[in-house]
Amino acid sequence: MSSNFCSKPVDVTKFGVIYAGAQKNVGPSRVTVVIIKKDLIGNAQEITPVMLDYKIHADNNSVYNTPPCYGIYMCGLVFEHLLAHGGLVEVEKKNMKKARILYDAIDESNGFYRCPVEKTVRSLMNIPFTLEKSELETEFIHEAAKKKMVQLKGHRSYFSYSH
């Protein structure tokens, strides 16, 4: 759930394990959040690395190793901010509004911008698009940087705006 972690409400009971590289939405790089059902803990195979054997973490109250204090602190600040602004229900509403603005601009551009993703399965968090004329891509990236929109060049075939 790396891309959409904490971007909308999720019924965690529908999953056995949720593994999220949470640096995109929650904290600094290398922050990872794992949510695992208790009945799945303790069934690791012998070849499982110690750090991925969640029984060890559960037995040690998630502090088997030295915890990344700064990352945890930053995540806590983000969680407080999310709660103060209405929680994940409100976050999802904001994400839907922002995504709608971008997708509408793409869809109403008469082909100048193109989104390669079918409308029914488009992401609220990662919005890939191409330009009608590939020779404009360098200029697009340059002009976007002037507006403080950086790192838009995602996959080699698409631009991707992540918010």
What does this structure look like?
The strands form two sheets. The chain has a three-stranded antiparallel sheet with strand order 3-4-5, covered by helices on one side. The relative contact order is 0.12. With 163 residues, the protein is of the alpha+beta class. The chain has two domains: 12-84, no CATH class; 88-162, Alpha-Beta Complex (Aspartate Aminotransferase, domain 1), CATH 3.90.1150. It is built from four helices and five strands, in the order ββαααββαβ. The two termini are 15 Å apart. The mean pLDDT is 88.
Main attributes?
5 strands, 13% strand, 33% helix, alpha+beta, Aspartate Aminotransferase, domain 1, single chain, 163 residues, two-stranded antiparallel ribbon, 2 domains, elongated, three-stranded antiparallel beta sheet, 4 helices
Short structural summary:
This protein folds into 2 domains: 12-84, no CATH class; 88-162, Aspartate Aminotransferase, domain 1 (Alpha-Beta Complex).
Explain the layout of strands and helices.
Blueprint: E1 17-21, E2 32-36, H1 54-59, H2 69-84, H3 87-107, E3 113-114, E4 126-131, H4 137-146, E5 159-162
Antiparallel strand pairs: 1-2, 3-4, 4-5
Reading side by side through the largest sheet, how are the strands ordered?
3-4-5
Strand content: 5-15%
- H/E element order: EEHHHEEHE
Reported for the largest beta sheet, the result is:
3 strands, antiparallel
How many helices? The count is: 4
Q: Given this structure, which CATH class of the largest domain is correct?
A: Alpha Beta
Number of strands: 5
Mean pLDDT level: 88
* CATH structural architecture of the largest domain: Alpha-Beta Complex
From the 3D structure, determine the CATH topology of the largest domain. Answer: Aspartate Aminotransferase, domain 1
Secondary structure category: alpha+beta
| Overall form | elongated
The total number of structural domains is 2
